[in-house]
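[job 0417] fold request received: Cystathionine gamma-lyase
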Amino acid sequence: MGDSGGHVGRGGRGGRGDSTRSVHAGRPPAVAYEPSLPGPVFVSHYHLPGEPAGPYLYGRDENPTWTRLEEALSQLESPDAAAEAVVFSSGMAAISSVVLAHVRSGDTVVLPSDCYQTTRALRDRLESYGVRVRLAPTAGEAQLDVLDGAKLLWIETPSNPELDVCDVRRLAETAHAAGALVAVDNTLATPLGQRPLNLGADFAVASGTKALTGHGDLLLGYVVVRDAELAASVRLWRKTVGAIPGPMEAWLAHRSLATLQLRVERQAANALALAAALKERDEVSGVRHPGLPDDPAHRVAAAQMRWFGSVVSFVLPDQDHADRFLTALRLTSEATSFGSVLSTAERRGRWGGDSVPDGFIRFSVGVEDADDIVADVLQALDAAK
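[job 0417] inference complete; emitting structure tokens
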């Protein structure tokens, strides 16, 4: 690891680096006079003579545009071993497919108490089906204490929005020994920042809406697994509930992967620069970014992450102070997502559901020049006083 927040990974299929893999993953071999990435296939049904057989039977089941994106995602999340990816209409569709397809009445699911609030909102639905749900924080591998008898362990690292990190390998080994499946929400890290399958997880899950596609213009989710039966179960869930992505969204997502390494590297470096600047301000407290050497999560993050992500969190004295700060920003939009090439920020407590102070800010750092991002934040902090 370096001060920029990570390094370029190498190895895997063909020994290629992450940037090369991001550009070429899932694209067909070059053919004269044809595009390097064929356009989206808009179809509900296929010509299907005789007995139903073949790769494409119906538009809710498969689509050639999905196939190319899924191959790309499998290569990014699992460059060293064969894997299958399944794409969904949103990150929550992907999360729901893993949770709801693999637990039954009487089973126990362990969720982080500090994970994405809509993931935690599954608790009521699961309990209405007779599933027991246990919650424990991400930090300190606290979920280890509630694994007894669990069928599924859900991990989110770094956690959203508080940026705590847990030891995925340790949790996965303990959970597997207890007979539980392990899923990791890899949204914030991206497959170039962290590879859960290499750390022992059964499922790598993410919202492609965020940093993976990075332009704030589509909704998408995905699941990547190495076990064929698990892949079949999430595919069947997608077919059954119809949580399929549009072909245009899938094509845009694949198109966006070509710049993934460039964006991840730039945003990690920018986020670290902003976090360092924020720590110098007296009115700012609780600055968190896993790339900071003195961050509580840094030791564990450095052992399992290659890039530390684009998100910085910090706390201003109160809600009014935070609102004044957000209003004074000139380069940064006030938005609830993260991972875009455009810097965004929000007072996270406005939604409820997260146990954060009223002045808690989640800042998603874009690819603008680091000096400009920092200057904008400092002038907004001055104005907020």
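[job 0417] notes: The domain at 260-384 is CATH 3.90.1150.10 (Aspartate Aminotransferase, domain 1). The radius of gyration is 21 Å.
[job 0417] exit 0
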